[in-house]
Amino acid sequence: MRGISGSGKSYLAKSLAEGDESKIFATDDFYGKTKEEYIKNWDISKKAEAHDWNQKRSIEAMREGVSPVIVDNTNTQAWEAKPYVEAAQELGYRVIIKEPAFGSFTPENLDQWASDVVANRQEDQYDELAEILAQKNKHGVPKEAILRMLQRWEPNLTAEKILQSERPF
Question: Could you tell me the pTM of the whole model?
Fold first, then answer.
C-alpha cells in the first residue's frame, strides 16, 4: 500500500485482507491502534524504531508464509518501500503496489480531483487537498505534515523502481 494520510489506504488494506487484519502491517500500529493511543504515544524520535519494528514483523510474516502480506504505510518515496520489496522478492512473493483512489471522498468528482492532484503533481492544489486529508485521516496527522507528503510524493512506483532506489541520507 502507498498513499497520503487520509487517502483511504487503511480502508483499502482491510478490504484486500478480506477481513483478516493480521495480514496488515502498519508502522502506525507501533504507536497504537486507536486515534487516542496514536496521539498519546506519537514521538518523532521513535520514527526509525517504529519503521524497523514494522519491517521486522512483516518480514517475519513473509518467512512464515502469510499471504497476502499488506504493508500499510505512506511509502511516499521509493526508498521507503525498498526493505519490504527486497524481502518479498527474496522470499518468493509477488509485489503488487496498491494506491487508494481516494474512494471514500464524496461527492464523486472529488475522488477524481484528488487522484489527479496527486498523480499529476498539481502543486497549486496541494493546500486544499492537504486540508481535506488532515480532516479525514484517522491519526490526527496535521495539514503541514500532509503537505510535506504531497511534496515528496513519487508517482508511478514499480517494484523495479523501488529496488533501484537509494536512501537519500
Answer: 0.85
Determine the residue type at 26: A
Residue type, 155: P
Instruction: Kindly report the number of other CB atoms within 10 A of residue 146's CB atom.
Output: 25
Cis peptide leading into 142, omega within 30 of 0? Answer: no
Task: Report pLDDT digits (tens) over 47-67.
Answer: 999 999 999 999 999 999 999
81 and 87 Cβ atoms separated by less than 8 Å: no
Closest CA to 58 of 14, 100, 31, 91: 91
CA gap 60, 13 in Å, rounded: 19
Q: In the chain, which ranges are continuous DSSP H helix?
A: 9-16, 35-41, 47-63, 78-90, 108-119, 126-136, 143-152, 159-164
In angstroms, rounded to a whole number, what is the distance separating the alpha carbons of residues 159 and 165? 10
What are the structural domain ranges in the chain? 9-164
